[in-house]
Amino acid sequence: MPPRRLAIGLCLALALGSTGIAAWATADVTVQGAAAPAAAAAREFPRPLDRYPDERGLGLWQVLVQRAELEPLNLAASVIFGLALLHTFLAPRFLALSHRLQRRYSARERAAGREPHPSAAAELLHFCGEVEAVFGIWAVPLLLAITLAEGWPTTQSFIGHRVSFTEPMFVVVIMAIASTRPVLQFAESAIGMLAGLGRRTPLAWWIAILTVGPLLGSFITEPGAMIISALLLSRQLFELGPSDRLRYGTLGLLFVNVSVGGTLTHFAAPPVLMVAGRWGWDMAHMFENFGWRAATGIAISTALYAGFFRRELAELGRRPRAAAPDDGGRKPSPPWITTIHLLFLAWTVLTAHTPALFVGGFLLFIAFAQATAHYQGPVQLRAPLLVGFFLGGLVIHGAMQQWWIAPVLGRLAATPLMLSATLLTAFNDNAAITYLASLVPGLSERARYAVVAGAVTGGGMTVIANAPNPAGQAVLARHFPDGVSPLGLALGAIVPTIIVGCCFMLL
Q: How many CA atoms lie within 13 A of 13 on its CB side?
């Protein structure tokens, strides 16, 4: 089949499949939904876990069947979520097909004596290949299904009150501030002091970034640590043209290290933040039970990968560096500019749970950045907004998965629970996993440890496993011309995932 027809067919299949899922999901309840007046009061949706009938004595399968029968949208939402997950794995194929279609279209236009322009089909495929857009795309059929079944007031109530967009907004702001030139220069000079112990070779930079950067996530939040680490890796390693094996190994190690690096404190890692207040965990508890084990796992994993890639990293040190990009005649950022940027960064971290404060601070930051534009580059908003769109779509879908995740987690012993949490995290945000575990009544302290340890352990296996991952991928995406392969990322992350998991289980 010609690529153009295949592209159009795939896009139509996506659209028709989304509509079909929504129609099927509401088959049993549309009659009542359609008959309801437009101004009908919104009901509590999705159904809270404590509003299901008594499930004592029922097996797991019986529980899930009963819940699906009571809430047909439960199953439909999970099917749509599964299709979104499948879409993330196919995203590199969409990108490759988009590039191929554009090349053929441009060749035909030139042969006809016309100036080529972007093909609409190729651009549509490229959009479908953007991982950051996937969950936002699939949120459309999900919201359509809810509206057809329950009415628009319920959809409005669900989005406005049952789903929290604080974390996506925070990631947009922290990513935009952390990626500015003054902050990056400060981080580079600080981590560069450690890299100087190894004469600032690519190997020394690589080790310093992948150990210190993730651990900073316990203090400047994981999204901030991810952005700074990814930007420094881009400049100090990826610009040198490493092999695919080193690129994916580095990306997987970065994601795993950042996921566990925020566990030294109780306020920086989203999966910890979701449960710390409910379970009474403070900084001392986190360091005693999680922090030192996480730091040990990071050190072992990074040392093992450094040994495995030492020859290629040494060879990269002999390659000539590309010329520094033209900075548009801007002067180097003076210390007072850097200080104010760091203060804005600190304010964002301090007010991370109050959108009105950190968004207001961000507006002041944009004004300050504009006034001092000659000392720094422009504030980059495209990548942060895409990442925020990704996370916004993910929390919408994640809010609909508690009906099956909570009973699965609540019926497992400590060791199986940790392994299950690690596995489930690969297919859902780890903060959602720990949050749902916090809703399970009577969860023992050992089980609580197991679910949090499993959630942070599995946070590097996929791009959706941990909220900062999309931000790191967005920064490094240009070094993966055909997109980041989910299989390549999983293979790069599997070894450090096993090492960190062993540290949490055995130490």
A: 10
pLDDT at 310 over 50: yes
Contact 476, 251 (CB under 8 A): yes
Answer whether residue 52 is part of any domain. no
For the stretch 429-441, pLDDT in tens is: 787 788 778 767 6
Cα separation, 130 vs 27, whole angstroms = 32
Q: Do 146 and 99 form a contact (C-beta atoms < 8 A)?
A: no
Residue 50 lies in a domain: no
Instruction: Kindly report, residue by residue over 384-397, the tens digit of the pLDDT.
Output: 888 788 878 878 88
Q: Torsion angle of alpha carbons 408, 409, 411, 413, nearest 10°?
A: 140
N- to C-terminal Cα distance for the chain?
Answer: 56
| Distance from C-alpha of 431 to C-alpha of 398, rounded to nearest angstrom | 10
Instruction: Supply the range of the domain harboring residue 306.
Output: 167-506
For residue 457, is it within any domain?
A: yes
Which tokens in the block code for residue 34?
A: 């359609």
CB 177 within 8 A of CB 341: yes
Q: Are residues 152 and 201 in the same domain?
A: no
Please give the Cα distance from 70 to 186 (Å, whole number). Answer: 55
Clarify whether residues 350 and 472 are in a common domain: yes
How far, in Å, CA of 477 to CA of 484, rounded? 7
Number of folded domains in the chain? 2
Tell me the whole-structure pTM to 2 decimals: 0.72
> Based on the domain organization, do 427 and 397 belong to the same domain?
yes
Question: What single letter denotes the amino acid at residue 131?
Answer: V
* 310 shares its domain with 172: yes
Q: Report the C-alpha gap between 83 and 105 in whole angstroms.
A: 30
pLDDT at 25: 43
Phi, then psi, of 48 in degrees rounded to 5: -60, 150
Indicate if 142 and 183 belong to the same structural domain.
no
What sign results for the dihedral spanned by CA atoms 143, 148, 150, 156? positive
The encoded tokens of residue 321 equal 């560096």
Question: Which of 105, 130, 162 is the C-terminal boundary of a domain?
Answer: 162
State the Cα–Cα distance between residues 487 and 387, nearest whole angstrom: 21
Does the CA dihedral 499-500-503-506 come out positive or negative? negative
Q: How many CB atoms lie within 10 A of CB 491?
A: 15
Residue corresponding to tokens 């450090």: 496
193 shares a domain with 158:
no
